[in-house]
Amino acid sequence: MKKVRTKIKQEAKTRSILQQEVDSVCPLCSSTDVGHFQIHHIDENPSNNELANLLLVCPTCHSKITKGDISQTEVQTVKLNLPNGIKVEIAAITIDKKNCCWDTYDNIPNAFIKRNNGKPSYPILNFSLINHSSRTVLMKEVVLKVKHLFDGFAGLSGPKPELLKPIATFKIKLPDADDTDTTFFELTNEISVPPSQAFKFQIQLYRNWNNKDYPVVGRMILYFTFKFNNNASYTAPKVFLNCKSENEGLRIQVLS
Ligand SMILES: [Zn+2]
User: Which residues have their alpha-adjacent CB atom under 5 A from ion ligand 1?
Assistant: First the structure.
């Protein structure tokens, strides 16, 4: 069957992004004859023009890939490890103890527990990220999934250092159902992060039922993914609310 080739929109702009990404050097053989480089479709689908699927390579390497002398896996690995690719890392996930009644949970990383201390009960999570890329990245979207565990008891906790001042607080609705439901939260103002800069933002969670907002109760695991420009995304470590691990729910279920 003939493959359908869709023309790349704004090809010059795309090419310039891809050239920046490889630092004007063929990522497979180090050729610097960038004027002759070609755009390769990593998944071999010529109509998939997402930047994540494109790689700028020299004509020699391009024909090697087409002939199968360089494997698709090899190409994918190269794409993920480009010198100027987007690399973002989570430095810390903490809880804003001053402004909500949630606290750290037994020094378990990314586990938080609700206390009865009269403070507002909507959990406010701090995310500190570092841009390890050599260029500015733009954070565009937060994607959240949830898995609820059964109710149980809680323990005590110790303090955790705060890193930076948060640059924004996003109020994000907790997905209603496990697995089937996902919250996509598009940022009205993208966060622009220069190279080697750490940044911190907060996510305040709430539930919504019949158009009314409710605090977060129960035990659950949160799965956050942060989306950046050039289709880059970062999946954060799991966040545990009122629980310390994924297996805890099962254990409580057996006991009750
Ligand atoms: Zn090459």
Answer: 26, 28-29, 31, 58, 61
